[in-house]
Specification:
By secondary structure, the protein is mostly helical. The chain is built from two helices and no strands.
Length: 102
């Protein structure tokens, strides 16, 4: 077994920092998506009411994109925690099992 140098070993603080940084990036991505959704759909609704006297079409992109935004939000708030919980559960379950043959 090779000895690892101190520079190769990640400390708990470094690992926590990396996880926090990833989480911030996920939240930043969702909030950017939300802001763009609001601005673009507000513009579409405005143009639709100004230009089109008849039936309005803004409902379709609003709902379609809204579904995508909802999925993005679910992944942002539920995705990682579920994934980490499942990993811990599987690791606990496999703790006492022998290694599979190679």
């Amino acid at each position: 077994m090779a000895l690892e140098t101190l520079s190769q070993v990640k400390t708990d603080e470094q690992l926590r920092y990396e996880r926090a940084r990833e989480r911030v990036q996920e939240l930043k991505g969702f909030y950017t998506h939300l802001i763009v959704y609001i601005l673009v759909n507000a513009t579409i609704i405005l143009f639709d009411y100004v230009i089109s006297p008849g039936p309005h079409f803004y409902f379709f992109p609003l709902v379609g994109w809204g579904i995508g935004l909802m999925i993005h939000g679910l992944h942002t708030w539920l995705g990682k925690s579920w994934e980490e919980r499942k990993i811990r559960e599987l690791m606990e379950r496999d703790k006492g099992l022998p290694e599979p043959p190679k």
